[in-house]
């Protein structure tokens, strides 16, 4: 049976945007974005996904979206992620790692190049507050209003009702990856999910626990 992945904050439809785990024939992508100009299947905000019924998707994929919310909106959005997922579903999330950005700022300053992107060099200010080129061009959707460390991301997912959370730090891209499981997986299932969905050759897991336990 075909599964449904809700691609939250999908942006313009371009190859490679969806995580590879969702690109085989077993998955059907449903694109959701607040910006109607990118022609999503559903025009809605992460904080109000009411067009999506409760428990109707198998996965939620969110790539660099949550940092665009204000802090008080994050619990609302994560509760929406949890609401639309089936009981055996999961959320796969990636976003900036502010702890790694802080290390770079402390050692090399705000004008250091964090990494090179297709748009050019990315500096700490771009990661902290949003890509300045896009903001200067009038795309204010790109502004960042909040941020996360591995511990705060795991805590936020736990508070939203996910039964188990695993978080991985990828210092080379100044990013965090997290999987929030609606039902706590067994050890083998957890390992298989990590192997399929978390970046290869990344750092050791920053957190692997049930909600309420501190990140390592």
UniProtKB/TrEMBL annotation:
<dbReference type="InterPro" id="IPR029063">
    <property type="entry name" value="SAM-dependent_MTases_sf"/>
</dbReference>
<feature type="domain" description="Methyltransferase type 11">
    <location>
        <begin position="6"/>
        <end position="93"/>
    </location>
</feature>
<dbReference type="InterPro" id="IPR013216">
    <property type="entry name" value="Methyltransf_11"/>
</dbReference>
<keyword id="KW-0489">Methyltransferase</keyword>
<protein>
    <submittedName>
        <fullName>Class I SAM-dependent methyltransferase</fullName>
    </submittedName>
</protein>
<dbReference type="Pfam" id="PF08241">
    <property type="entry name" value="Methyltransf_11"/>
</dbReference>
<dbReference type="GO" id="GO:0008757">
    <property type="term" value="F:S-adenosylmethionine-dependent methyltransferase activity"/>
</dbReference>
<keyword id="KW-0808">Transferase</keyword>
<dbReference type="GO" id="GO:0032259">
    <property type="term" value="P:methylation"/>
</dbReference>
């Amino acid at each position: 049976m075909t599964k449904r992945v809700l691609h939250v904050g999908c942006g313009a439809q371009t190859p490679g945007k969806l995580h590879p785990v969702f690109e085989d024939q077993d998955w059907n992508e449903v694109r959701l974005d607040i910006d109607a100009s990118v022609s999503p299947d559903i025009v809605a905000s992460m904080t109000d996904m009411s067009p999506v019924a409760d428990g109707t998707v198998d996965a939620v994929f969110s790539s660099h979206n949550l940092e665009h919310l204000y802090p008080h909106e994050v619990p609302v959005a994560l509760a929406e992620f949890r609401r639309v997922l089936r009981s055996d579903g999961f959320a796969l999330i990636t976003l900036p790692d502010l702890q790694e950005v802080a290390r770079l700022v402390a050692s090399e300053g705000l004008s250091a190049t964090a990494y090179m992107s297709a748009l050019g060099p990315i500096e700490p200010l771009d990661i902290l507050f949003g890509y300045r080129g896009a903001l200067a061009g009038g795309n204010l959707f790109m502004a960042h209003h909040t941020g996360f460390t591995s511990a705060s991301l795991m805590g936020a997912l736990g508070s939203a009702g996910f039964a188990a959370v695993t978080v991985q730090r990828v210092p080379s891209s100044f990013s965090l990856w997290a999987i929030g499981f609606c039902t706590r997986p067994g050890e083998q299932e957890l390992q298989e999910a990590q192997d399929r969905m978390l970046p290869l050759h990344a750092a050791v897991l920053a957190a692997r626990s049930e909600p309420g336990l501190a990140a390592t």
